[in-house]
What we know:
The chain is α+β, with helices and mostly antiparallel strands. The chain contains three helices and six strands. It has helices at 3-6, 86-90, 103-113; strands at residues 27-30, 33-41, 49-53, 62-66, 70-74, 79-82. The protein has a six-stranded mixed sheet. It is globular and about 30 Å long. InterPro entries: Bac_photo_RC_H_C, PRC_barrel-like_sf. It comes from Nonomuraea bangladeshensis. This is PRC-barrel domain containing protein.
Amino acid sequence: MSYLMELWDYRPDVYDRGQSLDLVGYHVQATDGKIGSVDEATYEVGESYIIVDTGPWIFGKKVMLPAQVITSIDPQERNVHVARTKAEIKDSPEFDEARFKEPEYRSRLGDYYGRFPR
Length: 118
């Protein structure tokens, strides 16, 4: 499986598909601080992502993060940690609510997030 396909899957050490965990409302922590909260999360094999509402941090912008960028989930503290900096997330392709489920949009996001070290 190519890395771009893997981007849309949770890391096996982060999320076990057998568990029932709803990430909506969890705080999202970039490598350099909080960026917002999970507005939506999916758990399908090869199509998993979170939508993050950044609130006032970047003027109410929402961003879509492939599941692979999640490095840990802390259910006690309700935190999702991601392997990207605030700047990398801020500079990501704009969230397009009308097109975010289309393969071309995911490919563009995959190209962007795939350039960073894992």
